[in-house]
Amino acid sequence: MKRFIQNQRGFTLLEMAAVLLIISLLLLVLIPTMTSGKDQAKGVSCEANIRVIRSEVNLYYAKEKKYPESLQTINRGTAEKPNELACDQETYTYDAKTGELTKVK
């Protein structure tokens, strides 16, 4: 019984440090990849919202034979800025004459 217990070995401090180093390096590579994915998803979501609003403007035009006076008409604008739309740190302006949403640079 004593011989069995003496033959068992654990990990050395050097082996544990090497494993922790490898795990740390993998996390350093993985974390920025995950955060850029979130930013990309926000951008895609914003583009989808802009497409929906453009189609709502076109549907309004098809029904009324004129473009809406502001985005508030189709329940998208705010009272403070009825012809501006903020989406993912970008601002879009609405032109009531042409019905176009353009990105402000």
From TrEMBL:
Main localization category: membrane
Propeptide feature ranges: 1-10
Assembly: Homodimer.
GO biological process: establishment of competence for transformation
Residues spanning the signal sequence: none
NCBIfam families on file: IV_pilin_GFxxxE
Residues bearing PTM N-methylphenylalanine: 11
Localization per Swiss-Prot or TrEMBL: Cell membrane; Cell surface
Function, in words: Required for transformation and DNA binding.
Keyword Transmembrane helix: yes
Family per record: Belongs to the ComGC family.
Keyword entries, A-Z: Cell membrane, Competence, Membrane, Methylation, Transmembrane, Transmembrane helix, Transport
Magnesium recorded as keyword: no
Name of the protein in its database record: ComG operon protein 3
Membrane topology: Single-pass membrane protein
GO CC annotation: cell surface; plasma membrane
